[in-house]
Write a structure and sequence with these properties.
The protein is built from two helices and six strands; from the N terminus they run ββββααββ. The strands form two sheets. Strands 2-3-5-6 form a four-stranded antiparallel β-sheet, with helices on one face. Strands 1-4 form a two-stranded antiparallel sheet. It has a domain of about 100 residues: GTP Cyclohydrolase I, domain 2 (2-Layer Sandwich). Strand 2 and strand 3 form a beta hairpin. By secondary structure, it is of the alpha+beta class. The N terminus is likely disordered.
Length: about 150
């Protein structure tokens, strides 16, 4: 079986899933045999506050070192888009994305930084990590400066 046989979203028109639980995270066989890191960045992530119904915005950075699988990027984009109408706190959104990726692709190591924009005057940054980075893996800083407001 070809490593791309089970991709149903790539190259097709797909509506946003109604919820993260309904989203399908497709994966592709890891094309490399040396340890390396993949970075996925979503600078305009959106979810909904479960109390007020107001939109919340974050800059997400996902870093992972694949074992057998990599996440297919269009499927990942649709998965993140499914949060647009999903009500949950920043902590649950950020850690939930990381945990779902761990379940689907079983990476050697994964970390996610959720850099949330302020609501009520307080920015909230949420971090989740799974596993230990492979020895010698180059892991750059996530590159998101602390929130400084207008200052």
């Amino acid at each position: 079986m070809d490593r791309y046989d089970r991709l149903n979203q790539l190259g097709a028109q797909n509506p946003l899933p109604a919820s993260p639980d309904e989203a399908v995270l497709e994966r592709v066989a890891n094309p490399c045999d040396a340890p390396y890191m993949v970075r996925l960045v979503a600078p305009e992530f959106t979810s909904i506050c479960p109390v007020t119904g107001q939109p919340d915005f974050a800059h997400l950075v996902v870093d992972y070192s694949p074992k057998d699988w990599i996440v297919e990027s269009k499927a990942f984009k649709l998965f993140l888009g499914s949060y647009r109408n999903h009500g949950d706190f920043h902590e649950a959104c950020t850690t939930g994305i990381g945990q779902r990726l761990v379940r689907e692709i079983d990476p050697l190591w994964l970390r996610i930084g959720g850099y949330w924009y302020p609501r009520g005057g307080i920015p909230i940054d949420v971090f989740y990590q799974h596993g230990t980075p492979p020895e010698g893996l180059w892991i750059p800083d996530q590159g998101v400066p602390p929130y400084r407001g207008r200052g």
